[in-house]
Amino acid sequence: MRDDLAFYFAGVPAFALYFGAGLLMLALFGLIYTALTPHKEWQLIRTNVPAAALAFGGSLLGFVLPLASAMRESVSLLDFLLWGLVALIAQLLTFALLRALIPGLGQRIGDNEMASGILVALSSVSVGVLNAAAMNG
Q1: Nearest-5° Cα angle at 128, 127 to 129
Q2: What are 24-33's pLDDT values in tens digits?
Q3: Where are the bilayer-spanning segments (predicted)?
Q4: Count of domains observed in the chain
Q5: Which run of H or E residues covers position 130?
Q6: 54 domain-assigned
Q7: 73's torsion region: left (phi>0), alpha (psi -120 to 50) or beta?
Q8: Would the CA dihedral through 121, 123, 127, 129 be positive or negative?
Q9: Span 75-93, mean pLDDT?
Q10: What are phi and psi of 136, to 5 degrees?
Q11: Which DSSP string do the residues of 19-83 spell out, in sequence order?
């Protein structure tokens, strides 16, 4: 029984490393995303603008889905970090494309236009799912 426990606990450092790296990447994505969007997510969320919370939350989920896939499939920490970078770029490009297709998207989200928030959230999640699946290909 002790050997089973020792084997189990031997994986804790790798878990902590990957989990910590994942949290740092999620925070980095959130910082970059909020710096590049034309609206101020945190200010809008603090003033109870659901469209902003939905758009931002969907973007976070769209990023973390492929990040989780990269964590599961990677062969090293560097491999994980590089695939995480791919996921980050994919999400930023998704929002840039939506901004090009929908004039005034940031203002629409700031004005609590739920259609815009829903579109950003679901587009981000859709790209995230495709990105995650492509990593397993």
Answers
A1: 90
A2: 999 999 999 9
A3: 6-36, 48-68, 80-102, 114-134
A4: 1
A5: helix 114-135
A6: yes
A7: alpha
A8: positive
A9: 96
A10: -90, -5
A11: HHHHHHHHHHHHHHHHHHSSS-HHHHHHTT-HHHHHHHHHHHHHHHHHHHHHHHH-SSHHHHHHH
Would you state the pLDDT for residue 3? 77
Q: Is 113 helix (H, G, I), strand (E, B) or coil?
A: coil
Q: Which residue type sits at 24?
A: L
Give a yes or no: residue 125 inside a domain: yes
pLDDT of residue 46: 97
- pLDDT for residue 137: 61
Q: What's this model's pTM, rounded to 2 decimal places?
A: 0.91
Would you tell me the crossing angle of helices 114-135 and 50-73 to the nearest 10 degrees?
0
11 within domain boundaries: no
Report residue 1's pLDDT band, with 50, 70 and 90 as the boundaries.
low
Which range marks the domain in which residue 27 is found?
Answer: 20-135
